[in-house]
Each structure stands twice: as C-alpha cells, then as structure tokens.
C-alpha cells in the first residue's frame, strides 16, 4: 500500500496514457481516413509526395498551402508500409496519428503541471484530453493539425520552464524557435496561392 501511495501519480499517468493510446489505436483500425474533415484532400496531399516526391500545386489540391512537415513524414511512413507489404498502408499513417494523439495528451498534462505545479490537476487535464471528443477526432484521421498542436505545446512547455528558471540560454531559444517554427515555411506561401486555392474545391475520394 505504501508503494502504491508513493507512486500513485505515476500509476495514474500510466493509466491515462494507456487509455488514450488504446482509444486512438482502436480508431486507427476502425476509422476510414476519408471520413475526416477534408479527408480526401489530406490523403491526396500525402499521395502526391509519396508517388511524385514533390509538394502538390494549388491547382491539384486546395490544401496545398498547408505546412508540409506532417505530409512529408506521413508520405515516408506510407511508402515504408508499401515496401514492407502492408495490405493497407493508410493504417500505418493512422497509427502515426494515434501516436501523435497520445503524445498530445501527455504534453497537455505536462503543460498543466508546469503551469500549476499540482500533479492532481495535471493528471485530470491529461485524462480530460484523453477522452475529449474533439481530441479523439483529430487523432483519428490523417490531418496536419495534430502535429502542429504537439509542436506548439512543446514550445509552450519549454517557454514556461525557461521563464521559471529565471535565465535564458541561447539553446532554449533555438529549441523554442524550432518547435514553434517547423510548420511555418509553407504557410508563408499561402498569400501567393490564394488565386489558385479555389481551382479544386472537391476532396478526392470523398
């Protein structure tokens, strides 16, 4: 009993992350990736990179202005799944999204811990995010939003830690800037693509 009491918050975290992972892994196999919001367009973005080795043009995909990092990683996973002979390569992409979703739950709890220094509140925050329908939804489909959320949470956590330490190190700035800016390069192209954005309004496969 004493051991359980000493490690109660660790056990609680394991339970919460285990629940989050179980839900998201189930959805990776149970949900059709085309069901997601703009699902066909997201998958088309990934397929263009996987098959052609390039980003889609605005005339091919109305999501072409989206930051490319998620799609590049997903295309790599998609191609490796094909090489390994996986019958449905999209399952591998969905599992990657489930992993991101579980990391997001953990980072949300860690952010609460950094902000309030109360383990009970941090665990409750993570537990809420683990079962919150919008959080489950965004982790069940191949969309770019979740990776951006994970990077932003990471940047916020590092910022809080740096502020609490009372001293700023250049290394901290590099990591914060890297996490916050990884999805920025392609967003800078959006104003240049506004005219072509409406050339393909229908998600493929939907």
Amount of beta strand: under 5%
Mean pLDDT, to the nearest integer, reads: 82
Morphology call: globular
Structure classification: mainly alpha
Whole-angstrom Rg: 19 Å
- Report the sheet with the most strands, covering strand number, pairing sense and barrel closure: none
Number of E strands: 0
Distance N to C terminus: 54 Å
Order of helices and strands: HHHHHHHHHHH
Amount of helix: over 70%
- Low-confidence stretches at least 5 residues in length (pLDDT < 50)? 186-206
Total count of helical runs of at least 4 residues: 11
List the helices and strands and how they pair.
Elements: H1 2-6, H2 8-30, H3 39-52, H4 69-83, H5 89-116, H6 119-131, H7 133-138, H8 145-165, H9 170-181, H10 184-187, H11 190-193
In short:
With 206 residues, this protein is an all-alpha fold. The chain has helices spanning 2-6, 8-30, 39-52, 69-83, 89-116, 119-131, 133-138, 145-165, 170-181, 184-187, 190-193.
Describe this structure as you would to a colleague.
The protein has 206 residues and is mostly helical. Helix content is 70%, strand content 0%. It contains 11 helices and no strands. It is globular.
Give the tags.
single chain; 206 residues; 11 helices; 70% helix; disordered C terminus
């Amino acid at each position: 009993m004493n051991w359980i009491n000493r490690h109660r918050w660790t056990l609680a975290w394991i339970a919460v992350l285990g629940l989050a992972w179980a839900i998201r892994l189930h959805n990776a196999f149970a949900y059709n990736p085309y069901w997601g919001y703009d699902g066909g367009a997201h998958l088309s973005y990934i397929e263009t990179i996987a098959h052609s080795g390039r980003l889609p043009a605005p005339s091919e995909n109305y999501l072409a202005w989206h930051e490319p990092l998620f799609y590049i990683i997903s295309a790599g996973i998609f191609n490796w799944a094909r090489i390994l002979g996986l019958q449905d390569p999209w399952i591998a992409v969905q599992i990657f999204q489930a992993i991101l979703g579980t990391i997001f739950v953990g980072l949300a709890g860690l952010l609460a811990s950094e902000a309030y220094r109360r383990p009970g509140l941090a665990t409750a925050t993570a537990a809420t995010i683990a079962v919150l329908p919008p959080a489950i939804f965004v982790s069940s489909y191949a969309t770019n939003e979740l990776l951006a959320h994970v990077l932003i949470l990471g940047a916020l956590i590092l910022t809080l830690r740096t502020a609490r330490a009372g001293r700023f190190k250049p290394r901290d700035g590099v990591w914060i800037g890297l996490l916050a800016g990884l999805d920025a390069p392609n967003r800078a192209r959006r104003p240049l693509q506004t005219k072509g954005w409406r050339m393909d309004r229908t998600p493929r496969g939907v």
